[in-house]
Amino acid sequence: MAAPLTLLLIVAVTIRAVLFRSSLAELISARVEVVSPLNAWKRVVEGLALLDLGVSPYSGDVFHETPLMIYLFHFTVDYAEIVFIVSAYFVDCLSCFLKPLDRAKMAINSNYLKSDLLFNFPGCCELISWFITIIVCLCFCKFHFLCTCKYTDVRLCHQIADGITALALYLSIQTYNKDVFRKQKYALESDRYSADCLELLRSPKEMFYIPLKVAMFYLLNPFTILSCVAKSTCGLNNAIIALFIFCTLKGSALLSGILLALATYQSIYPLTLFAPALLFFLQRLYIPVNLRRSSFWFFTLQYAFMYVGSLVVITGLSFFLLGSWDFIPSVYGFIFSVPDLTPNIGLFWYFFAEMFEHFRLFFSCVFQINVFFYTIPLSIKLKEHPVFLIFMQIAIISIFKSYPTVGDVALYMAFLPAWSHLYRFLRNIFLVSCVLLACSALFPVLWHLWIYAGSANSNFYYAITLLFNFGQILLVADYFYAYLRREHHLTHGLYLKKKDGTEATLVLK
Amino acid sequence: DSDPVGFDSLDLNERRGRSTDAELDRRDGTRTSEALTPAAAARDEFQEELVIRPLHSGDIYASFQFRTLWDTDFLQEGQKVSHYRLFPKSLGQVLSKFSVRELHISFTQGFWRTMQWGQPFIPSPPGAELWVWFHDTVSDVDGNWKELTNVLSGIFCASLNFIDLTNTVQPSASFKPLGLGNATDHRFLRYATLPREIVCTENLTPWKKLLPCGSKAGLAVLLKSEKLFHSSFHSQAVHIRPVCQDEQCTSKAWELRQTLNVVFDLYTAGQGKKEWSLFKMFSRTLTEACPLATSSKVYVDITDNPELFELSPATPLLSQAVVLGDRRTYSVFDLTRAETFGQLRSLNLLLRWKGDGEMLRPLLHAERYVAGFGLQTGEIHTVIYNNHPYRAFPVLLMDSVPWYLQLYIHTLTVTSKSRDNKPSYIHYQPAKDRHRPHLLEMLIQLPPHSMTEVTVQFERALLKWTEYTPDPNHGFYVGSSVVSALVPSMVAMNTNFTQDQPLFSSFVPVKEESSYFVRVYTEPLLVNLPTPDFSMPYNVICLTCTVVAVGYGSFYNLLTRTFQVDEPSLPLAKRLANLIRRIRGVPLLT
How far is A366 from chain B (nearest CA, A)? Predict the structure, then answer.
C-alpha cells in the first residue's frame, strides 16, 4: 500500500506545485468560495505586516486568525531557511532510526490492545514514518521547481498540511476498517446479524482500497487543491482535525484531547466533536454509556479534563504571546456575531445582510445554536457508531458554520469512500451530485455576472449558495438515512416480508 | 443726496477716533490691563480684507478674510465671559463649554485645481472638514466631540451631525495646532471630513451672521449667494485659535478668522474676454467699509506683469508681501479712506487683460484615483508631484479611509522615479468594522522634479442593507487625502510677527525663512460597493430559513423515527366489515 500512497502524494504535490507557479494561483486566492475572512492568506500576510509595523493585528478588523497561527507563520516566514534545513536534518536523522522504530512497533503491536491509552506509541511511529515520506516528496519538489517567491516555504507549509491530513485520514480509515471488520466478525460469531444480510457484510477485499480512496478523495479533490493553492489556512485546520481523528481512532486520549482543543481554539465549531470522541473511547474501553456508572463519569471527566486543560493552556499561551485578550473578540466574537458579510458559500452572509435590525441578535443566536444543537440527538442516535458521528458532525459544521469555504466541504467529502457500502441505500445521490457539480460550476459564473459584468445582482449568487447548501444537506441526510437503514437491515434482515408474505417496503415512522 | 455723504463722513471720523483709541490702548496695553478688571480690559478689534487674484487659467480668485481679535481667555479658570462685542457669542459659548483650544471648519463646494490655479491662501477639501484641538483638561474627548459636532451642525445649518466615530480620526502628525502652544498629544485632536456635504445658501447665511456688520456694510455686502454659488469653486471657513496679544506674547488673545474663497469663471462666461469687475462678479459695488472694522482693504494681485492688464481705478498704494514662497505685489484700496470711492461714492474695480499668461507649475501637487475593475477589490493611487527643479523635501501624507474599504497595508507601495521609496515614518491605525476608519499617515521624501506614486489595495465590503445611503449605486465617498509639507521657498519668508501684515499672508505661522507650509488636498474618491437586493429582505429570510428547515427537518425525521415495514391500512369496506365481525365474534379479515 505504501507505493500507491507515495505515488498519490507525489501526484498531489506536483499538481499543487504546478498550480502555485501558474498565474491561476492569484486568481484562486481571491475567490470568495475558496477563502473566507477567517482563513484568507492575504489577511494572514496583512496580520504579519501589522506585526512588523508594531500594530496589534487584532486592533483592526482584517485579521482573524488565532495568535498561535500568526506566530507560527511569523516564524515560518522569518526563519524559512532554518525551518527547512532543520526539517531536512530531521528527515536524515529519522530515516536512520526508522528501522529500530519499525521493530519497536512490531513489538508493541503484539500487545496492542493493552498498550497505554495516553501515549499510543505505534500510532505515532506510523505517522512519523509517513511524515518523513511527505517531507521527502516536498524536498524533491522544492529542488525540482526551484520556487523563489518570498512565501515559498509557506506554500510548503500548506502542502505539508494537506499531506498530513490525507495521511491521517488514510491511517484512521485503515484502523477504522480493521475495527469494523473485527466487530463484524464478533457479531457474526455471536449470531447477531440476520441470516439473509450476507450481501451487506463487508469483505476485506472491498475494504482494502478504501483508505487509499479516502486519501485520494482528499488530495485530488478540486476543492482541496483550490484551498491549498489559495494558501487558505483552512488546510491547516483540516490537518488538525484529521490528526485528532487519527489519534482518537488510535486510542490516544491525551493526544486526541490536545488536538481537539487545538481545533476548537482554531475555529470553535469542532467543539461538537468532543461527544463522538468520548463515545469512541468509551466503546473502546468497553465502558457502557450509563449515567449511573462511576467508570463512565471517571473517564468522561478524565477526557474532559485533558480537553479543557489543553484548551486553557493554549489560550493562556496565546495570551502570553500577544500580551492581551484582544484576540478573543476578534476571533471568536467575529465567528459568532458575523459582522463581515463578504459573500461565501454559506447561508449567513446574505441572510444577515438582508436582516431587519431588531431581529439580528435573535437570528444569529438561532443560526449558531443550529450548528451545535445536532450534537445531542445525533450522539444519542449514533452512540454505537462514533466514527460515523464524527463524519456527521464535520459535515454539519461545514454546512452551517458562519464562514464556510470549499476546504471545509472537502474534509467531510473525503470520508465518502469510507461509506461506499451504503451506496445501495442512497436515494438521491445522482440528483445531489448533479446539484453540487452544477453549483460548483455556477459559483464563478454568477459571481462574475454580479461583481464584474454588472448584469446580474446579488440574488443570483445567493440562489446558488442556497442550492449548494441544499445539495449538501440532502447528501448528508441521505448518508445518514442509508447508514441507519443498513443497520436496520443487519438486524432485521435484508428482504423484509409483510405479514401476507409479499415484499415489504420500509418506511420511517 | 447730500445726506448720505454727510453721514458717511461722520461715520468715517468716528471710526478714525476709535482706531486711534485702540492704538493708544495697545501702546500702553500692559498698564491698562493691570489697572482694569479682566472683563473691562478685554479689547477686541475687527479687520476685513478682500484679495483678488487673476489666475493663469483666466479665472478670478477672490478671497475674503474677516478677522476678529479678542484679548480674552475663555478657558481661564474662574472667569466667566458674558460680555460680547465683536466676537460672536454663539461661538464664544461653544468654545468655553467644550474647552476647545482650536477649531477649524470649512465648507467647500467644488474642487481647488492646484495645477491651474496655484495654491490657495487657505486650502480646504471638497465637502465639510472639521478639526478641533481640545484643551488638555478635557477628560471625555469623544463625548465633547460628539456634542460639539451637533452644536456646530445647528450653528452652520450643515449635516455635521453625521460626524461620528466611523469617520473621525486622530492624525498623529498632519494637523498641528496653528495657534499658540505646541500641543503634541494627538489624543486631544479630532479630525473629520464629510466629502458628500453639499454647501449652499443655508450654510452661507449663518456664516455671514457671525460677522460684526453682518452683510449690511463693508466687504460682506458683496457676499450674495446667487453669485457666489454660480462659480467654479466656493469655500467658506471659520478658524478659531489662540494667538499672542503682542510681540512679547505675554498674554493670549482669541482670533476668529472667517474666510471665504471663491473662483469665478468669467472667462467662459464672458465669451473668452478676460475682463472682470466687482460688479460683474458680485453684482454689487463697494460703498463703505464696515464701521466696526479697524482696517478694511482690497488687495489686487498685480505681480504678473503689470503690462498684461489694466486696472481701474488706478491706485498709487502698492504693497509687497511674501506669500506661499513668492513675493507678490498688490494694489491696495483702503476702504477706510474716502478718496478710495472717488466721485461716484462707490468702488467698482475693473480689470482688462491684454495678453495671456503662461501656465504655472505649483511646486507641490497631488492627485488621487481608484484603479481596478469590478466590485470586489480595488487600488487607491495617490500621485504626488514635486516640481522643484533641484530640492527634495519631505511631505506628510494622510489618508482616512472608511471601514467598508478594507485596506491591506502589506500592499502599500511608494515609488518615486520607478524606484522603491520607503517612507521614513508610517502611522497606521486599521479600521474596526462600523466603529473606526483606517488612518494612514506617512512621511515620504520627494526627490527633486519627481512624481511619487503611493498605492494601496483594498477590498470592498458588502454592507447590511440598512447601512447603504439612499442612492447606493451612486457610490460611497472617500475623503481627500491630505498632503502637508514645508516647501522650500524661492524667496526669504517673513518670520516677523507684525500687526500690519495683510491677513492672507499671516494665517500659517512661519517658523523659518527658507520654507513655507503648504497643505494640498486631493480629490475625494467615489467608490462603488456591491449591493444586496434591497427589495427582498422578506424573501431572503424566508428562503434561507427554508433551507435551514430542510436540514433540520430531515435530521429530525431520521433522528426521531424508526424503520418499520409499511403495512398498508385496510380499505374502508373491510374495516367496516371487521367492526361487524368483531361484534359477531368471527375471525377478522386481513
Answer: 10
In tens, the pLDDT along A415-454 reads: 999 999 999 999 999 999 999 999 999 999 999 999 999 8
A window 194-213, beta carbon within 8 A of B: none
Q: Encode pLDDT of B446-466 as tens digits.
A: 999 999 999 999 999 999 999
On the 0-12 / 13-18 / 19+ scale of CB atoms within 10 A, A341 is buried
* pLDDT tens for each residue of A116-131: 444 444 455 566 666 6
| HSE, side-chain direction, 13 A CA sphere, residue A486 | 21
How far, in Å, CA of A341 to CA of A348, rounded? 8
Residue from B555, B557, B588 whose CB has the most chain A CBs within 10 Å, to mutate:
B555
Considering only CB atoms, A451 lies closest to which of B375, B544, B561, namely B375
Residue A421's pLDDT is what? 92
Is the CB of residue A386 less than 8 Å from the CB of residue A283? yes
DSSP for A194-231 reads -GGGGGGS--HHHHHTHHHHHHHHHHS-HHHHHHHHTT
- The backbone torsions φ and ψ at residue B320, rounded to the nearest 5 degrees and listed phi first, read -115, 140
Task: Return d(Cα B231, Cα B415) in angstroms, integer.
Answer: 37
A400/B461 Cβ within 8 A: no
Residue A424 per-residue DSSP state: G
Q: Is the pLDDT of residue A23 over 60?
A: yes
How many angstroms separate the CA of residue B522 from the nearest CA in chain A? 25
Instruction: State the complex-level ipTM.
Output: 0.89
The alpha-carbon gap from B471 to the nearest alpha carbon of chain A, in Å, equals 16
Nearest CA in chain B to A61: B432
Contact: B429, A59; criterion CB under 8 Å: yes
**With contacts defined as CB-CB under 8 Å, which chain B residues touch A345?**
none
pTM value? 0.86
Q: What is the pLDDT of residues B151-179, one digit of tens each?
A: 999 999 999 999 999 999 999 989 988 88
What pLDDT shows up at residue A290?
Answer: 86
Looking at per-residue pLDDT, the higher value among A99 and B7 belongs to: A99
Q: Which residues of B touch A61 (CB under 8 A)?
A: 403, 406, 430-433
